[in-house]
Amino acid sequence: xxxxxxxxxxxxxxxxxxxxxxxxxxxxxxxxxxxxxxxxxxxxxxxxxxxxxxxxxxxxxxxxxxxxxxxxxxxxxxxxxxxxxxxxxxxxxxxxxxxxxxxxxxxxxxxxxxxxxxxxxxxxxxxxxxxxxxxxxxxxxxxxxxxxxxxxxxxxxxxxxxxxxxxxxxxxxxxxxxxxxxxxxxxxxxxxxxxxxxxxxxxxxxxxxxxxxxxxxxxxxxxxxxxxxxxxxxxxxxxxxxxxxxxxxxxxxxxxxxxxxxxxxxxxxxxxxxxxxxxxxxxxxxxxxxxxxxxxxxxxxxxxxxxxxxxxxxxxxxxxxxxxxxxxxxxxxxxxxxxxxxxxxxxxxxxxxxxxxxxxxxxxxxxxxxxxxxxxxxxxxxxxxxxxxxxxxxxxxxxxxxxxxxxxxxxxxxxxxxxxxxxxxxxxxxxxxxxxxxxxxxxxxxxxxxxxxxxxxxxxxxxxxxxxxxxxxxxxxxxxxxxxx
Length: 485
What we know:
Arc Repressor Mutant, subunit A, Hypothetical protein af1432, 485 residues, 1% strand, mainly alpha
């Protein structure tokens, strides 16, 4: 159930965080989209575009991969490794067409994922209140099955120019490190007139190396007016959790439980805000780990465990890249540390952890225990309290923090009935949406609700129509924003 938290972030900072989340989800360097945005804006400037068009291009470049968490599960199925596989795919180093369970990459199985990624990226732009030009470009960025395939009719007048700038800049930025600038331009030349206009490639070639060398400075005088406007911070956590549908709403629940634990833990009111914000941001680093690792029921091998241990490191790195969240990202990076030094990534011990860190760790652990996972059902509240108390007794968690979290959990009011919050969907449709948003199939949802799969599919069709969504991730994101789930 989504918690309605009132923490906010500026549009500009949200874009920067989501850019990094997208890069990490694709296995790319955390500044890839920043560099792509600067190259794309330089292209727009070279092509004679005005400042507002340059700004649009920059934002499209930054949000290029923002919808990639929504397609992680699909690419995990196709490639086996949604992070490393997609990195190999975009750098054109993929061997053998993937090693997933579906026979590898084909236009038939990639195109629906491209469409989904475009839809979610466009929805993110809309939720951030960005211009219609930005939203439209993101919805066209990877093609549409309505135009045959991703390489047909690219020069139709309904394709925004920012699409071509970002496609070309993105290819240069990702291919040059992988193959060298000269080879990257050869690969780009093979797609000239197909993926982007040949005349645009001709404009790029003489400047490519100089522009790559000068990426330390913004290449276009962008207009930032309005980008200091505030939007809900939950947008960031909700987008992150599209990667693993069974995590839907998890960060919101951790944040709400942590917030309610402040007073029982004896903390002062000023400590509440950074604690809540850290809970909402703590999942940033999770996107660096392939879905197959997260869904592995048995013991992780050495390499898999090392990837998991790096999750809070990447969350801390986000704070270094986006100064506006530096304090909260640092706090969030302690969420898996334990008082006895058995946590990660720092192996910090009790003397390095204040009450904020201790409450955050306990709230996250308790919430995880009370949530279902692919390999186990949810623990009841009493069982979770017993398990967490036992771990506190063993010295892993702070006893006082655990007591505060358990007390807060027991006093949390149940969520208000859905129709009272939003009359858009019926109570039955909301129930269906709760199930499918967690990654359940129509058959699984039908079994849980004791109705037929056909009835579930009918409800899903109605939900999509009412939410103006074409995919489950898009419906989930919109429903979370409206407080429906």
